[in-house]
């Protein structure tokens, strides 16, 4: 798989040069999936002009304030000669809840670290004016991020990747000269803090796909699945702890068991079973449960996953029992389209990212969702 991915080329517009790829030099690749062309396709797609426009409109767009009717004129002879108040505008709508971005199976964490560190660019947040009101606006427009992986080593690696990416995106606060009560000039110490455009990292959870998530809590779901067609998917079961103090034989046995466990965990990151879709189909079936009304999912597929068929089945609602029955209006509300592609490389290894969402469901003017 790694050799094949090395030779891939993609035609998705490259991300802006000011958005660097997170550092993953600390990751033990013998235990965790190494960032490859599929990972980088996610970075390019999420930061493309079309997707940043979609995310900003989906989560933070607001229409103009609604004018309120002019007050009725006072009755004649009431003795009040004050002029009528001019028409005014209603107060701005309350801000929407912060979008919750979750990556399933982050591996090294390069994708979710990128989304967290550059949340302001991707979602159009962190654009306050420097005033107290602007600071409140930045706080209200924060992005929450998290990740879930069955591999405990991937969970640890992801946390460190996110931390390093956030630190790299941090900006120093300029010294502010303030006037003390005694008239002397003082300077606040220069500190380093996360840029206002970064997200709020909530952490990683070890778990199976979307199992740890509550219903309707995810606004943006990112999934780079195990998509390589294989005869079967490795079974994962953690080894039992030793019942007695280790000796030489026990240590050797434990070492072999650890190697086997790590090998299975690594295989789980790429082995997709029948048509490379067994794990992906499990996740797709749970999207109606975990996505919020305004939620969307970005899922990577290769050519042998039959992406056109996958999109058709999503629109028809077949993954969650909608095909051939159920609420027809609900089935029609689902949409799926390709938003990133590795280009016209021949063969099964051609990659694309599809976006799945509900049409016509997003933030209302009152900050809630339809």
From TrEMBL:
Gene Ontology molecular-function annotations: nucleic acid binding; protein methyltransferase activity; S-adenosylmethionine-dependent methyltransferase activity
GO aspect biological process, one term: methylation
Region (Disordered): 59-100, 173-203, 232-260, 320-339
GO CC terms of this entry: eRF1 methyltransferase complex
Statement: the UniProt record of this protein carries the keyword Cell membrane: no
Biased composition annotated in UniProt, kind: Basic and acidic residues: 173-188
Keywords of this entry: Methyltransferase, S-adenosyl-L-methionine, Transferase
Biased composition (Low complexity): 190-200, 251-260
Record flagged with keyword Plastid: no
Family assignment from sequence similarity: Belongs to the eukaryotic/archaeal PrmC-related family.
Name of this protein: S-adenosylmethionine-dependent methyltransferase
Protein source organism: Diatrype stigma
Organism classification: Eukaryota, Fungi, Dikarya, Ascomycota, Pezizomycotina
Recorded name of the encoding gene: MTQ2
């Amino acid at each position: 798989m790694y050799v094949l991915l090395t030779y891939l080329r993609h035609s998705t517009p490259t991300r802006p040069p000011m958005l660097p790829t997170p550092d993953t030099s600390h990751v033990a690749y013998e235990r965790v999936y190494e960032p490859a062309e599929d990972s980088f396709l996610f970075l390019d797609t999420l930061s493309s002009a079309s997707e940043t426009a979609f995310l900003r409109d989906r989560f933070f767009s607001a229409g103009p304030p609604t004018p309120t009717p002019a007050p009725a004129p006072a009755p004649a002879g009431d003795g009040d000669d004050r002029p009528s108040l001019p028409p005014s505008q209603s107060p701005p709508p309350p801000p929407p809840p912060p979008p919750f971005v979750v990556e399933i199976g982050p591996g090294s964490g390069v994708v979710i670290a990128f989304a967290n560190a550059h949340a302001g660019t991707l979602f159009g947040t962190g654009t306050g004016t420097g005033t107290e009101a602007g600071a409140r606006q930045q706080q209200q427009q924060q992005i929450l991020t998290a990740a879930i992986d069955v591999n405990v080593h991937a969970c640890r690696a992801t946390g460190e990747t996110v931390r390093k990416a956030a630190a790299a995106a941090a900006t120093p606060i300029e010294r502010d000269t303030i006037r003390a009560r005694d008239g002397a000039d003082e300077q606040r110490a220069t500190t380093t803090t996360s840029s206002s455009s970064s997200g709020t990292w909530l952490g990683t959870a070890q778990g199976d796909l979307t199992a740890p998530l509550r219903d309707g809590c995810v606004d943006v779901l990112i999934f780079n699945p195990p998509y390589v067609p294989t005869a079967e998917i490795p079974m994962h079961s953690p080894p039992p702890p030793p019942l007695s103090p280790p000796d030489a034989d026990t240590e050797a046995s434990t070492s072999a068991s650890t190697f086997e466990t790590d090998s299975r965990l690594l295989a789980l990151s790429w082995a997709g079973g029948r048509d490379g879709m067994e794990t992906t189909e499990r996740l797709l079936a749970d999207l109606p449960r975990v996505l919020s009304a305004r939620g969307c999912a970005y899922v990577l597929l290769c050519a042998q996953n039959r992406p056109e068929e996958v999109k058709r089945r999503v629109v028809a609602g077949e993954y969650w029992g909608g095909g051939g029955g159920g609420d027809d209006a609900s089935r029609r509300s689902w949409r799926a389209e390709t938003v990133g592609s590795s280009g016209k490389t021949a063969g099964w290894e051609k990659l694309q990212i599809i976006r799945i969402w509900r049409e016509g469901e997003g933030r209302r003017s009152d900050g809630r969702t339809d």
